[in-house]
Amino acid sequence: MSSFGIVMSGGGARGAYEVGVLGYLYREFPRRYGRIPHFDVICGTSVGAVNSTALAATMNDPETGMMLLNDVWTSQDLGDVLHFNLRQATRLYRVWLGGGPAAGIFDPRPLALLISHRIPWRQLVRNLKQRLISALTVSATNVRTGRPTVYIDRAMGVPLPKSGPRVVIQPSHILPQHVLASAAMPLVFPPVRIGNDYFCDGGIRLNTPTSPAIHMGVDRMFVIGVTTPNRQTEIRMGRTPGAAFLIGKALDALMLDHIEHDVQRMQLINDLLADGNAAFGDSFLDRLNAAAAARGGLPRRVIRNFVLHPSLDIGLLAAEHLTSHRPKFTRMMGQAMLRLLEVGEGRDADLASYLLFDGDFARMLIDLGRQDAARHGDQIAEFLLCNQPGDQTSS
User: Fold this and answer.
1) Is the separation of the CB atoms in 33 and 385 below 8 Å?
2) pTM of structure
């Protein structure tokens, strides 16, 4: 029996695309194919941690849960999440110099209230107790050590993977502070204190948490990406890129490109195992794992994966959105914020695509996610409902 996992990466406001894919999986997919998708392990980082936790907490009634998640994203204004007031202005020096309470450019309290009030936390406990899911993982980055920490909330009897040299595994009941820490984009929001350490955005070191899913025993993995592979950026000649353009590209490299590396690495291992079986026979994998066990290593196995990417460039969509909409923001920061988000020297607006927590923009990305999932519906059904050999990847 295959163990299924779903992985959701970070990307700020781009997380609305994940909501569209989830909406298709739990609202349209069952009516089209007659079965509700089941995931044993749910893994999320950054904004993906918000969506993953919401999914895990509503797995008892996922269709209703996805309607709630859709409402959360589409009903927000930019100022509801990126809240800035006079109090924040007087504390800006702490963002640069540190000292005193942790600080970010924006007030984290609206986001904290959204996470703590809209996710049914008690139902999450019941879903794990009833084994509707086996485990939920949320990843954050330890500010002191720079190492990613994976918080794992699991059903009774589910084994816990060991911490490695690069990743700390921490068993814990997932609470609002874990999700808030995972979503705390550096500088934008203050780091969150958990125990004796501060934590920030898990996407810095572990943006696509495929590794926790693998170590939790998943052998079929559905991954939702929020970036378009092989995109080409056009820059107007004679113009030097500005800060918004450069920061957007840096965020792409830092937070969004990991998914390609992770998928390529999984494919490489799958190919090596397949070549070993072809060269040495069906006993190859058993003998390989026996040798690994003798030295205390982890067993190898084929991890089949399905990756869904946006069919349209979200940076370009953000640029188009800003030319036709003016998101609601606080009077104090409205014009300054919009100038920061303006399209720069390129045709896209990558920085804006991370920060546009705006209901209209979210609705656009949710529709895109639903349409992309529906377009690949037959492939998704074959992957989730059938035990077919071979990897399947869509984009």
Assistant:
1) yes
2) 0.85
